[in-house]
Amino acid sequence: MEQVSHLYAFNHFVIAIAALTIMVLVARTLVAGTKYSSLLVIVVFGLALGSLLVHSDMATPGLEQFPVVALIGQTTVIALIASFFVGGQEIRRLLSKKDFDEECDFFSPSSQEVVLGTSSTQLTYIIRAFLLLIGIQTADVLISDRTTDFALGDSFLLLSYICLALAFILVDRKAVISNKGQYIRKGLFEVVAIIVVLNTSLWLSNVVSSVIGLPQIFFAMILSSGLGAVLPKWKHGPTMNALLFAGIPLVLAGSFLVGGSHMVEAFGIPGLQSVIVYGFSGQIFWMFGGLALLIFVGKSNHIRNLAPGLAGGLSHSGLTGACTAGDFGRTAASRAPIMINIPFAGHIFVFTILAASAERGSLMVGWTLPLLLAGTTFVFLALKSLRAANGCEKTEVKGLMLFSLGWQIMAVFGSFTLLSVAGMSLEHASMSAASGLSHFGLFAAVQEGMFGSAAASLITFTFAMTFLVHPFVFAMFGKAAESNGKMAEKAVTALASAGLIGVVSSTLMI
Questions:
Q1: What pLDDT score was predicted for residue 1?
Q2: What pTM did the predictor assign?
């Protein structure tokens, strides 16, 4: 029977890699030739397919019948470690006066299409990213002795071996690599480093848990960003390249499938309607409100500023994935990791206060109000800097760093404070805030159980549902990319106003 269980696990592995890679490829095909992000399609595709699986009786809510798909949705931290590492590198390069000589010809990807909208190198990245997410996650679980907490845990050794071995040997033969041996060894080193970061961050989280419940992602961010700062010259190997390109899209695809499976049952849960309503309204307000400030006050109406600014300002999973995948150009792609990392420096306050609040059972409003004032100050200074930038890259980056930090503080603590004052429980407020911002840090923290088991089980649904706003978001950014980087100002104003009305209305409904 043990052999049968291993075959069962392998069958689920094949189903998952087929379903998720096809979803990503179809999404890329549908947006091929446009400036729109494939995440626009993945949102709708994932939710619809997850719901259909339940409606057709192929699965139950939560997709217990497809454990590998569910497992992919739990690998958020792995995908983010890659982004944090790059952010650490970019910050070190920005702050250092040294000239880090980069050999741009170390790896040259192939541009030959094998699927409409996807080159052979990109296809390799997508497949390798899936293998890495599963392989690293299963290896991490094995090392930390947590297999009993996972479905198919008995087969994790087999899955880890197959996935990591395939990821190790999978290289696009059409790409130009100056030193193939070195490139492959870099990939192996990166895998080991990510596993070490995962285990160390989990250990640190457990060590301090008796004092304060800081989530694993907090320590993973510090460790991976620190590594990036220490290794600014590190040229990315196949592991980093794959995770940066396809890690977040695959994680979101898995999360949306699971979230879609909860779609019908979740609406019947008391109080969850308020969570979803704020999630939708918050998505619009915090996104387009931030864009309005950058455009009208900061005079920075260009996608090179808007995309990374809001990706960092909200720790926005969708925009982060689109930026790092290069959907909004090279400048946005290089700036996004910096903007993502900078707000996480302030997460020592975010996670500390929220962890203490979770243990207390209610938000510590006395601590959030001073932080809201600090966030407002950072945003003011940021907009002042951006207004005077006149296209100067260093000034723009400095302004965006301040904006990302300030807007993040305002959005996170503004949401929690508003919802708590309105009478929403902290458990529901955590889901509302994470969903209303598409905040991958909060999403991972809630998913880890920081705010209770009920929130952990439902966050994939509420997070995925509010992603239905993302067609508007990505449509606006896609249109901006096609309009020489300029975003439609009237549309931003209208959406920001609608979001404000929605946020106020949703809090009155609680």
A1: 47
A2: 0.85
| pLDDT (mean) for 179-192 | 92
Question: 200, 201, 194: which is closest to 243 by C-alpha?
Answer: 194
How far is residue 464 from each of residues 23, 39, 317, 435, measured CA to CA in Å?
16, 12, 11, 8
Classify residue 372: in a domain, yes or no: yes
Q: Would you state the pLDDT for residue 345?
A: 62
| Chain centroid offset of residue 271 CA | 26
Strand partners, 119: 113
Q: Is 145 helix (H, G, I), strand (E, B) or coil?
A: coil
At 306-346, the pLDDT tens digits run 999 998 888 887 788 778 777 788 888 888 888 887 776 66
The pLDDT tens digits of the residues spanning 199-229 come to 999 999 899 888 777 788 889 988 998 999 8
Give the tokens for residue 157.
Answer: 């050794």
- Confirm whether 229 is domain-assigned: no
The count of domains in the chain is 1
Give the structural domain span for 411.
Answer: 264-510
How would DSSP label each residue in 229-276? HH-TTPPP-HHHHHIIIIIHHHHHHHHHHHHHHTHHHHTTSTTHHHHH
93-97, 166-170, 392-396, 410-414, range with the lowest pLDDT: 93-97
Residue 175 lies in a domain: no
Encoding tokens for residue 110?
Answer: 């192939």
Please give the structure tokens belonging to residue 127.
Answer: 């497949």
Number of helices (H) and strands (E) in the chain: give both, helices first: 23, 4
Pair 423, 432: CB distance under 8 Å: no
Domain-embedded: residue 172: no
Max distance between CA atoms of the chain, in angstroms, equals: 69
CA angle 90, 94, 99 (to 5 degrees): 100
Contact 319, 349 (CB under 8 A): no
